Amino acid sequence: MKVGLGLYRHMLTREYYDFARQAGCTHVIVHLVDYFKQGANNPRQNQPTGGKYQPWGVAGDPEKLWTLAELMQLGKEIEDAGLIFAGIENLDPAHWHDILLDGPRRPRHIENVKTIIRRMGEAGIPVLGYNFSIAGVCGRVTMPAGRGGALIVGMDGPADEEPLPKGIVWNMIYDPNAPPGAQPAISHEELWRRLQRFLEDVIPVAEQSGVRLAAHPDDPPMPTMRGQPRLVYQPHMYQRLLDLAPSSSNALELCVGTIAEMTEGSAYEAVDQYSRQGKIAYLHLRNVVGKVPYYRETFIDEGDVDMLRILSILHRNHFDGVVIPDHTPQMSCSAPWHAGMAHTLGFILATKAALDQPPESSNQTSALGNIQKT
Ligand SMILES: [Mn+2]
């Protein structure tokens, strides 16, 4: 298991790389989409939030794909800081919205994704995280309801009252001049069909390029959000996604917090099932209390999930990918994002250190030794 940090686009600087190293990370996962661009209710020192029915921000330039030179330069900067570039998280809605929507630009958008994957292969970036979701991460509210009054994100009920407007996909605005009206609602089976076509089109290129596609589950994992169907909203649905295209390039960006929000199954069983298959490309670690449609995100050391047990399952199954903190509550200080990340990383590093000790080494590890047997 390797420990990394996810950095948003505006954090791709030496200062943040140094912070990652200081906090004990060896790897970074990079976001190239600027989720915060022109977002009215979406401060940069938090995870992208928006409002219950307000999108994050405006998508990128549809004419400008991430260039090979840009990716190589980024890789060099990360390497110069003493870190390993473990992956890119998420595609820009501007580059692939008609794959999600099955719109007229789909053929071009498939070429976009293939080009990005080829460039990633050339630049030696092994993982592309993606989230095949029409409504995206939406329908959540931000409230000071965490431990010690920390600002947290959660759900206060279903989010189907306001349908997804035209011009918005994946909770970002890809067409500010879209006509009024809602995106047409489709069936779950139609969404699965779109995913299957996507995987059939791009997995062969990913295989040739040595890149793994890694799917995030739907967050929040409701059957529908804003009138749009969701793909992976119960733990077993991940298996369907994997079975659609058996390939080492068809993998998961497993999000423990999202799985814990699901109404069926267990996060422990899901982590065991998918790590035993070697299908987890990397992992998001976050704790929660409750399940959809009523849950809230928590600090890593509280909440419904026994994180020691999650990490011990990964250890037992010889998971050798990267674990990164997902979101954290906002801590009351001048650097709420940094404080939340450092707190979570300290927890992960302590657990990893205990798990990495030989079982017979001392009495002090007996508690964790017992967890390893579960
Ligand atoms: Mn996540």
Estimated helix fraction: 25-40%
Q: Write down the overall geometry.
A: globular
Main sheet record: 8 strands, parallel, barrel
Radius of gyration computed on alpha carbons: 20 Å
Oligomer: single chain
What's the helix-strand series? EHEEHEHHEEEEEHEEEHEHHEEEHEHH
- Bound compounds, please? manganese (II) ion
CATH overall fold name: TIM Barrel
Strand order in space, largest sheet:
1-2-4-5-10-13-14-17
Count of beta strands: 17
CATH class: Alpha Beta
Any low-confidence stretches, pLDDT <50, length ≥5?
Answer: none
Any guess at the CATH architecture? Alpha-Beta Barrel
Please give a handful of descriptors for the protein shown:
single chain, 374 residues, TIM Barrel, eight-stranded parallel barrel, 11 helices, 17 strands, 36% helix, binds manganese (II) ion
Descriptive report:
The chain has a single domain (2-373), classed as TIM Barrel (Alpha-Beta Barrel). Helices cover 36% and strands 18% of the residues. It contains eleven helices and 17 strands. It has helices at residues 14-22, 68-80, 93-101, 106-123, 188-209, 237-244, 256-261, 267-276, 307-316, 336-356, 366-373, and strands spanning 2-7, 27-30, 57-58, 84-89, 127-130, 141-143, 152-156, 168-169, 172-173, 212-215, 224-225, 228-229, 250-255, 280-285, 287-291, 294-298, 322-325. Helix 1 links the parallel strand 1 and strand 2 (27-30). Helix 4 (106-123) packs parallel to helix 5 (188-209).
